[in-house]
């Protein structure tokens, strides 16, 4: 029986199919080789977090590739409010479609940000574009705020991009804005279109209620204030680079575990009970009126040098658990030194928004003080893991937020007038503060919503 006769067409089909099979095999082998050459990232680090509602983003992640490290370290490319920065704002622009300014300056325009840098870089559209002199905005301060001297010198000394403002201590009728620090006083008849601003630095537990006052603006540490006045404000050199490699071993030669400097033994939260329970499972040295150890405030520098040299962890516990309430206990006592802060106070999501990435441990990441202690013991025995909490250093700086510059700039924004329907409800309403932990608060919220 003879062999079947192959046509030219059939030969072409056979060759085409064979070539296709060869290409498929080569592609599969190439992928296998590529995956074999890629480094194994290892198992993901597991840390217990708070319930899904408002879960913080401080727990996992990798070091960002720093392809442009020289560029982000160049001060000349930074805005004017950063150290060495020279970049000044240009007059704002408007949307061609709506005719409104593009910059987001107020809480209702961007509820996810504190808008501090937007306000620092805001210059009204027609500001300094014509030879017509802008009439200065008058800011009246009836009490307090002694650093604000009368006149316009303050705004020029600070180098404010918008500086046509004057501070006064009298003549409230002629003021564009009156700032009430801590409480509202009677200032006489209110002028039309005059704005009143309430200025609070303490948390709701330590401030007075506001009665019979129509408040237009707020200035507090809260991120939803009109003029946010934080205790400190972290700013990255490049938002894409939140961690960089470190050459210093922050665990080296440290022989002690946890330290705490504290004098208020009767706070509005459970920090004392938590610290005592934590001390059952790990060394906690408490200095001051609430502990057995002493380190005088008159020798604060010596105390913090001891902290840097001897301790791995510091309890940066606030006296109240209120939203966004993060003070110098964390920013100065904690992040200002080579120690890992353990925080209590604001909600975990608030710390995640305000602090450098992976620079702290929040107590509500753990179910109990004992579970936290177990993790601290793990860090104590793992220098690489401990040092991973310091990779934020060198990626940014704490900036001067130039409060007075921002107040002056916002006065020049032609925004329609608004007011708080009930400023007390906004300041001290439900879910603003809790005397329990935020973990317990969030769990109760979930239970209530599902019931």
Automatic annotation (TrEMBL):
One GO MF term attached to the UniProt entry: fucosyltransferase activity
Entry EC number(s): 2.4.1.-
Pathway entry: Protein modification; protein glycosylation
GO terms under cellular component: Golgi cisterna membrane
Name listed for the protein in its UniProt record: Fucosyltransferase
SUPFAM superfamilies noted in UniProt: UDP-Glycosyltransferase/glycogen phosphorylase (SSF53756)
Membership in a protein family: Belongs to the glycosyltransferase 10 family.
Record membrane topology: Single-pass type II membrane protein
Protein source organism: Fopius arisanus
Compartments reported by the entry: Golgi apparatus, Golgi stack membrane
Statement: the UniProt record of this protein carries the keyword S-adenosyl-L-methionine: no
Domain named Fucosyltransferase N-terminal: residues: 159-231
Top-level division of the source organism's lineage: Eukaryota
Key word Acetylation present: no
Regions that span the bilayer: 12-28
């Amino acid at each position: 029986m003879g062999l079947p006769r192959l046509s030219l067409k059939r030969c072409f089909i056979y060759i085409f199919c064979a070539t296709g099979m060869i290409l498929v095999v080569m592609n599969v082998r190439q992928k296998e080789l590529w995956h074999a050459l890629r480094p194994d990232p290892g198992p993901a680090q597991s840390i217990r977090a708070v319930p899904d509602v408002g879960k913080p983003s401080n727990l996992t992640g990798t070091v960002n590739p720093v392809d442009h490290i020289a560029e982000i370290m160049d001060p000349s490319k930074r805005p004017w409010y950063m150290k060495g920065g020279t970049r000044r704002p240009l007059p704002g622009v408007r949307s061609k479609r709506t005719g409104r300014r593009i910059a987001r300056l107020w809480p209702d325009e961007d509820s996810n940000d504190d808008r501090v840098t937007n306000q620092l870089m805001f210059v009204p559209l027609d500001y300094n574009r014509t030879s017509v002199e802008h009439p200065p905005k008058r800011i009246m301060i009836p009490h307090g705020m002694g650093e604000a001297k009368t006149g316009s010198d303050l705004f020029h000394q600070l180098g404010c991009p918008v500086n046509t403002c004057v501070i006064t201590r009298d003549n409230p009728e002629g003021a564009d804005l009156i700032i009430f620090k801590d409480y509202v006083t009677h200032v006489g008849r209110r002028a039309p279109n005059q704005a009143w601003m309430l200025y609070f630095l303490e948390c709701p537990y330590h401030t007075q209620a506001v009665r019979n006052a129509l408040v237009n603006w707020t200035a507090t540490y809260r991120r939803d204030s009109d003029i946010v006045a934080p205790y400190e404000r972290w700013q990255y050199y490049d938002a894409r680079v939140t961690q960089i490699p470190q050459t210093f071993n922050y665990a080296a030669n440290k022989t002690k575990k946890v330290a705490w400097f504290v004098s208020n033994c009767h706070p509005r939260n459970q920090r004392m009970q938590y610290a005592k329970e934590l001390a059952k499972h790990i060394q906690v040295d408490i200095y001051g009126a609430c502990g057995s150890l002493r380190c005088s405030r008159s020798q604060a520098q010596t105390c913090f040098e001891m902290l840097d040299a001897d301790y791995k962890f510091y309890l940066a516990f606030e006296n109240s658990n209120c939203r966004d309430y993060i003070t110098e206990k964390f920013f100065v006592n904690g992040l200002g030194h080579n120690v890992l802060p353990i925080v209590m106070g604001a909600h975990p999501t608030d710390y995640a928004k305000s602090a450098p990435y992976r620079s702290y441990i929040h107590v509500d990441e753990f179910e109990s003080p004992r579970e936290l202690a177990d993790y601290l013991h793990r860090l104590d025995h793992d220098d690489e893991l401990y040092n991973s909490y310091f990779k934020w250093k060198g990626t940014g700086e704490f900036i001067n937020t130039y409060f007075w510059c921002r107040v002056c700039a916002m006065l020049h924004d032609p925004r329609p007038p608004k007011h708080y329907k009930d400023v007390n409800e906004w300041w001290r309403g439900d879910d603003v503060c809790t005397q329990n932990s935020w973990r317990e608060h969030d769990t109760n919220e979930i239970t209530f919503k599902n019931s």
